Amino acid sequence: MPRRLREVVFVDGVRTPFGKAGPSGIYAETRADHLVVRCIRELLRRNPSLPAERVDEVAIAATTQIGDQGLTIGRTAALLAGLPKSVPGYAVDRMCAGAMTAVTTTASGIAFGAYDVAIAGGVEHMGHHPMGEGVDPNPRFVSEKIVDGSALVMGSTAENLHDRFPHLTKARADAFALASQQKYAAAVAAGRIGPELVPVATRSAEAGWGLATVDEPPRPNTTLEGLSGLKTPFRPHGHVTAGNAAGLNDGATGCLLAAEEVAEELGLDVGMRLVGFGFAGVGPEVMGVGPIPSTEKALARTGLSISDIGLFELNEAFAVQVLTFLDHFGIADDDERVNPWGGAIAVGHPLASSGVRLMTQLSRQFAERPDVRYGLTAMCIGIGMGGTVIWENPHWSGARTEGAQQ
Known about the structure:
This protein has 406 residues and is an alpha+beta fold. It has helices spanning 32-46, 73-80, 98-112, 140-143, 154-164, 170-189, 224-228, 260-266, 291-302, 319-328, 344-347, 354-368, and strands at 8-15, 19-20, 57-61, 89-92, 117-125, 200-204, 208-212, 249-259, 272-281, 309-314, 374-381, 385-392.
């Protein structure tokens, strides 16, 4: 029978403050699933016209799906958050693009008509579950040279990019990292970053209860001189440091998606409209180039070009990875359209949660920029992939045309 695809909208997004992974981090003694529950409850609190029983699905991503971020966390977090038992849920794993995939998968269901409203997000507690915990890679990967041995060490894949593109120097990477810290600090000072944060009660056996209200990772006093002297842990005399890469972090994100007609029916605001998306595979040893083919695929499928994109939210897993993307598309390192409020080098990258942070930030920027019609969120993904999602600004001041296809 004939089917009609529906427009899908991003209604609202929230996140916990991001913490530093490890025994001294703000979430050292806080459960991962508690972070997700806070996001789900906050989405419902901020959108009171949405009856909880109208949520059709909860998709939550985690890269390391064990312990307090295992047990089909989309379902368990929904129950813990107080959603009706009739609301189903599931877990997603596409490493760093887990939350991004939770969004694109549930959005596809909404467009198809299987859902009206969904919650999508991600969590990573890298303090409780370091990357690779419990993993047993098949020895064939290396013995049969299916992948290069460096493919399973993300920092080594970033060093490989410096090898492949020698013009992307450490000095350029450090300068980009410094700009990320400065832009993030300016956005916080201006009140642009903060309204999306969900306060989280934290516990410590030694210090007692606390309240996390701000991000822990940023280093606002960063200087180029300080960056230049940092160690290169992945290679002697290398290029990748703790200063020009995202850190090890804890945090969670969540967003509310709906069919546009349903959002209108329920009186929900529309932050942005989904235009299209693309995922692509690349050599795992140079996984940082992944957002290039995924963006080319998304642009081709939507009938857009890179010049149509007025805002870019690119995940800063490593500075060199973003620079590779910018160089490919002829975009300057300091282009004001790129990560205008800073990125993961400053705020942190709790793996599977980061995709929704990018989207939430883009949605908030759209509200300030009616001159911009299209924006893009993109990220590299471990084991050699890239993901890109293109969004339309509902506040765009021009007349809507039929240029892009969903």
